[in-house]
Write a structure and sequence with these properties.
membrane, globular, six-stranded antiparallel β-sheet, 6 strands, Capsule polysaccharide biosynthesis protein, transmembrane helix, HotDog_dom_sf, about 35% helix, alpha+beta, THEM6_lcsJ_thioesterase, about 350 residues
Length: about 350
């Protein structure tokens, strides 16, 4: 998701998409589909056409503009179907997206190419962020009116709202075979004064089920965590993880970096925090109070949110530290092994 994408989504892409659908529907009324289908199935060269259609269906994810369609589908889907409110505990809940490996995603090892995981991550993150933080984005985007974001001098920040992807790390554990189905489980891992960290697990399809869905019922209700052997014993769910990725997003108003807590708060998912709030302290993420004993059965208060943020930050900080590897580049001061074609 690039900076500026969401700034263009509502005023540009939604009207354009609506106009295109209206025109397509108008044209479709004047087509004799029965005749078209008969000619397609029975006319000369039908075998080639049917095989080509089958190939396109099996590889639709890899066709031109398919990535764009998948991304904007996630935006439109959650604009139309997201519940008006979500429980605050949903902040760290998973968004589950299903997919399948196409033949064109397969490499010479006859499994899903590692490079294609990143296109799937774009889609999975878009579903998560649009669903969770969708209500807060227009509020932050119209900052001139709502005045949620101010600079260090107290001035209201102006500019177009956008979301930028800063980095992605992916660890591969198992292979995914051609045409194999899998699920992407994405959730917010943590945040600091600049970055929102998201963790995504690629999971064997159908092996793990959440205890329920937040808000509106979507699809088949899953009211139990599926056990591998049908018993009540604890299950190591990591056995079903194919790969795990960590990504970091930055929110922008023009060139100004927006604190992630402001976007989360505008979406109604942050409980009020005493003292200096979610932007206080030396780290800009709240004063480091002793959280004490947490009641796991209680409703989500600011202490439970902060405890989960700190737990995720223990992993995110190691990922963020890799930014320092930029300084290792010396421009080949001691030479290079060569300059090769077809890169």
């Amino acid at each position: 998701m690039a900076v500026g994408t969401l700034a263009l989504f509502y005023p540009v892409f939604v009207p354009m998409s609506a106009a295109a659908l209206a025109y397509a529907g108008h044209r479709a009324l004047y087509v004799d589909w029965r005749l078209v289908l008969t000619q397609f199935l029975n006319g000369p060269g039908r075998t080639s056409r049917i095989l080509l259609l089958l190939f396109l269906v099996l590889n639709w994810k890899s066709l031109p503009l398919a990535w764009t369609v998948r991304i904007f589908h996630s935006f439109i889907y959650h604009v139309l179907r997201r519940p008006k409110t979500l429980p605050q505990r949903a902040l760290f809940h998973y968004s589950v997206t299903s997919s399948r490996t196409s033949l064109l995603e397969t490499d010479y090892n006859i499994h899903k190419s590692n490079s294609t995981y990143f296109a799937d991550l774009d889609v999975s993150r878009s579903h998560l962020v649009t669903h969770l933080l969708g209500p807060g984005m227009p509020i932050i985007g119209d900052n001139a009116k709502n005045q949620r974001v101010r600079d260090k001098d107290g001035n209201v920040v102006k500019g177009a709202f956008g979301v930028g992807l800063g980095a992605v790390f992916c660890s591969f554990r198992k292979e995914i075979a051609p045409l194999q189905g899998y699920e992407m489980w994405s959730r917010i891992l943590s945040w600091d004064r600049k970055w929102l960290y998201i963790v995504t697990h690629f999971v064997v399809k159908g092996k793990v089920r959440p205890t329920g869905w937040d808000g509106r019922r979507m699809g088949r209700t899953r009211n139990k965590v599926q056990k591998a052997d049908g018993s009540g014993e604890e299950v190591d769910f990591s056995r079903y993880v194919i790969a795990t990725a960590v990504s970091k997003y930055v929110f922008k108003l023009g060139r100004f970096t927006v604190h992630p807590a402001l976007v989360i708060e505008a979406s109604g998912l942050l409980p009020e925090r005493p003292g200096e709030g979610w932007k206080g302290g030396e780290t800009g993420t709240g004063t480091p109070e002793d959280l004490g004993e947490l009641d796991e059965a209680a409703e989500w208060d600011w202490k439970r949110v902060e405890a989960e943020r700190r737990r995720g930050l223990e992993y995110a900080e190691h990922f963020a530290a890799l930014d320092g590897t930029n300084s290792l580049f010396d421009g080949g001061e001691d030479g290079a092994i060569g300059n090769f074609p077809l890169g």
